[in-house]
Amino acid sequence: MAWNIVFEPLIPAWTIALLALPGLAALAYAAFRRARGAPLRACAFAVLITALANPTIRQEDREAVPDVAAIVVDRSQSQEIGVRPEETSAALEKIAERLAREEGIETRIVTATNDPDGEAGTALFSALEEALSDVPRERIAGAIFITDGQVQDVPGSAAALGFDAPVHAVVIGRKGEKDRRLRITEAPRFGIVDEPVKLSFRVDETSAGEAPAGESARVTVRIDGAEAATADVAIGRESTVALRLSHGGPNVIEIDVEEGPNELTTLNNRAVVIANGVRDRLRVLLVSGEPHPGERTWRNLLKSDPSVDLVHFTILRPPEKHDGTPIGELSLITFPTHELFDQKLDEFDLIIFDRYKRRGVLPLGYYLNIVEYVERGGAFLAAEGPAFASPYSIYRTPLAAILPGQPTGEISVGGYRAEVTETGQRHPVTAELPGAAKSPPEWGRWFRTIDVTADHGEELMETPDGKPLMLLDRAGEGRVAQLLSDQVWLWSRGYEGGGPQAELLRRLAHWLMKEPDLEEENLSAAAQGGTLTVKRRTMADETPPASVTLPSGKEREVALEEVAPGRFEGTTEAAELGLYRIQQGELSAVAAAGPLNPREFSDVRATADLMQPIADATGGGVWWAGKNADDTPAIRPVREGQDAAGANWMGLQRNEQYLVHAVHQVPLLTGPLALILILGALALAWWREGR
Q1: Rounded to two decimals, what is the model's pTM?
Q2: Within 13 Å and on the Cβ side, how many CA atoms surround 458?
Q3: Which of 157, 147, 68, 156 is closest to 114 using CA atoms?
Q4: In whole angstroms, what is the distance from residue 141 CA to residue 484 CA?
Q5: DSSP assignment letter at 210
C-alpha cells in the first residue's frame, strides 16, 4: 500500500496560469505599497489557485513483481566437444542455485541448439529474444550466457538488444586451445564425367592464434565413399587436387585431413562437396537392318535428348540386291564398317541393332569386336524382328556369346498386352511403369513375339502366356538387353491408348550405360529436417538393417521396411550436423545433414572476443568458467546506472516494478471548504486594512 498527493486540475493548467498572472501582479503591487492586508490577500489567492489545482490524496494497493533474468545455455554441437557438456551443466547448476537465493528475481533458462538445416551457426541472442518476448522490457534484470563464445548472432550495439540491462557471459573451454580444420576454397558444382575437375582447399592449424610453419598433413579425398586421391599438403597453404567424376548425377566428394596432436575435435577435419556429373555427348550407334515403321521411333527417342550424339545407319541396299543400277548413279553412301566396328567402336556408349539380320554386310570379325567391346564395359541393345528367328539371325554370329535369349525359330502372332514379371516389378527398369499396376496393364496391344529360350539373364517383361519380351544380362564388365518384339512403336503412335514407350526405353538405355539411379542393388540416403532417410533397392525379398555412422563417430542400426517390391526404407534422427555414412554389406552411401560445411565447425575454439563488445556496451562482464564450478562469478543486485560486473561477481539490475490492483482518492480542498477559506482570508484582510 502506498500514499501520495497528486494534482488533478479542474481546468487546464495553462488556463490557471493565465488567471494567476493578474493576481500575482496585484499582489506584487500591494507588497510594493506595503499594504497591511497583502499577506492575507496572498493567502486567499493561494487557496484559490490550490483549489483550482485540486490536490488529492491517492492510496494505491500495489503488488511487487519480480524482475526476470535469463540464463541462455549453449547446447550447440561445438559444445559437445570433450568435457564441455559436463562443465556447461555444472556452471548452469551453480548459477541457477545462486539466482534462486536472490529474492525478487524470476529465472528463465533457455537452451539453444543448432538448426539442422540452417547455415547461421550458433544463434543464442535469437533464442534469448524469443524467450523474453512476453516480458516487459522494464522488468528485465539481465542475461547470462553459458557458451564457448562461438556465437554468430551477437548484436552490433546495446540498443539492438531491445532492453536496458547487463549482458554477461561465462565461457566454457580453455584459453589457447589447439585445433586443425579443413576449409574448401574452390569447389566444382558440376563436371564432365571422366574429365578432370579441380578442387582447392586449405588446412589450418591454430594454437593461441598462431599457425605452425613448415608442417604438412595427410589429406584423403573420397568420391561416393570410394578413395580417389591422397596427398601430403602444407598446413596454412592452399592446395589443389584433380579428380574425375565417374557417373552422371550427384557425386559426393569428401575431403578428410588426418587428426593432429591434441586436437579439440576432428569434426571440422572433414569437408563435403556435391558435384553434379554431366555426360559429354553420349555417343549412340543405331544400326537398322531395314526400313520399318518402328525405325522412326528409335530415331525420335534418341534425337530428342540433346545430350545424345546419334550415329544412325539403315541397310537400304544389302549385298544380295542386284538390280543393274550403275554404281556411279547410286546416291547411297557406303556403310563405313571398318571405321565404326574396328577403329572407333570404343568411342560409343551404346550400340543398338534394330531388326538387324546377318547379310554379309559385317564380317564375323566385327561381331567379335562387339563382343569384346561389351565385355570391356560397353552396352549393347538388340531390338529383334522376324529375322532373329531365321537362318540370318545375329545369334548365328559371335554375338551369341553375350545374348541371353536363344531363338527357337518360331514367331508368335496375335494381339496381347505385355506384362511386367515378378522380377520386373523389382527391377528399376520396369518397376512402377505407368499403367502396369492393373491386370491386364493399361496400355495398348502388341501383335508379334520372337520366341526364345532364356539361357541366362533376367526376364523383366513377358506375354500373358509366359513368353519372354525383355531380357537383361551382364557380359564381363558390360551389359546387354534384348527386346523380343519389334512393335514397341505402337505405343508411341498411341494405338489403343499407347503406353510408356519413351519412359521404358529411356530407363533401359540408362541402365545399359550404368546410371547409378537404375542399379538393381543400390543404397542411398538423404538428411532433411532433422531426419535421415535410408533407401535400399534390391532384387532380394528382404534386406538386413543398415549401419549408420554419425558425424560424431557414434554408430547405430536402422531397420529397413519394404515400401514397394524391391524397395526398402528406414528413418532415424539426424540431430548432428555433418556427414552421415551408411553401410550395408558391400554397399555404402553418404548424406550431409544441414549445410555441407557448417559454420558451426568453422572454428570450435573457446573465445571471449565475440561476446566481450556487447558485455562492455551493457555494463556486463565475461569470465572463463574453469574446471571448478565454484569459480563461477557470484551474483549481486545492482541499481540502474551502477557497475554491474567485477573481478568475481556479476550484477543483475533491480527495476522495482509493481502491479496496481486498486486506487483510492480523497480531495484535500473541496469547493465549500475552499470558499470558506477564501472568504475568511479576505475578511481578515479587510479588517486588517480598516484599522
Answers
A1: 0.65
A2: 20
A3: 147
A4: 82
A5: B
Q: What's the distance, CA 652 to chain centroid? A: 39
Distance CA 329, CA 680 (A): 144
The arithmetic mean of pLDDT across residues 538-559, rounded, is 89
Lowest mean pLDDT among 60-69, 380-389, 406-415, 547-556: 60-69
Under 8 Å CB-to-CB from 387, ≥6 apart: which residues? 289, 355, 356, 357, 393
Distance CA 285, CA 313 (A): 8
More confident residue, 301 or 16: 301
16-27 pLDDT, tens digit each: 677 777 767 776
Q: What is the grid cell recorded at 310? A: 546419334
pLDDT tier for residue 2 given thresholds of 50, 70 and 90? low
Least confident of 341-345, 383-387, 424-428: 341-345
Measure the CA–CA gap between 46 and 669, rounded to whole angstroms: 12
Residue for cell digits 548432428?
A: 576
C-alpha cell at 303: 534425337
CA distance 326 to 138: 106
Please list, in sequence order, all residues whose beta carbon lies within 8 angstroms of the beta carbon of residue 596, skipping any fewer than 6 positions away: 271, 272, 273, 274
Q: Residue 39 pLDDT more than 50?
A: yes
Burial class from Cβ neighbours inside 10 Å (0-12, 13-18, 19+) for residue 437 reads exposed
Q: Are 551 and 579 in contact (CB under 8 A)?
A: yes
CA separation for the pair 481, 110 (Å, rounded): 62
Of 32-41, 134-143, 446-455, 545-554, give the lowest mean pLDDT range: 32-41
Give which of 349, 456, 344 is closest to 406, Cα–Cα. Answer: 456
Report the distance separating Cα 26 and Cα 41, nearest Å: 10
Nearest-10 crossing angle of helices 671-690, 38-53: 170
CA distance 523 to 543: 11
Q: What is the DSSP letter of 138?
A: G
At 79, phi and psi to the nearest 5?
-85, 0
Which run of H or of E encompasses 14?
Answer: helix 13-32
Nearest CA to 593 out of 523, 524, 536, 526 is that of 526
Q: Which residue has the cell 499407347?
A: 498
C-alpha cell belonging to residue 538: 534390391
Length of the chain: 691
- Give the contacts of 531 (CB within 8 A, at least 6 positions apart): 571, 572, 573, 574
pLDDT of residue 321: 55
Compute the distance between CA of residue 7 and CA of residue 49 in angstroms, rounded to an integer: 12
Q: Which three cell numbers stand for residue 142?
A: 539481465
Of 419, 440, 438, 439, which Cα lies nearest the Cα of 430?
Answer: 419
What type of residue is 253? I
**309 CB burial (10 A radius; 0-12, 13-18, 19+):** middle
